[in-house]
Amino acid sequence: MTNPITSSGLEGIVVAETRISDVDGEAGRLVIAGHEVERLAATHTYEQAVVAVLAAGGARSIAELQLAAARVAAFELVPRLGDALGQPDAMDALRTSLGHLRPTGDDTADALAAIGAAPVFVAAWHRTRTGAAPIGPDASLSHAADYLRMTTGTVPSAAAVKALDAYLVTVIDHGLNASTFTARVITSTASDLISAVVGAVGALKGPLHGGAPGPVLDMLDAIGEPAVAEPWLLAELAAGRRIMGMGHRVYRVRDPRAAVLETAVRPLASRRLELARAVESAASKILRERKPDRPLAANVEFYTAVLLDAVGLPREQFAATFAVSRTAGWAAHVLEQRRTGRLIRPASRYIGKLP
Question: Do 256 and 273 belong to one domain?
Answer without folding.
Answer: yes
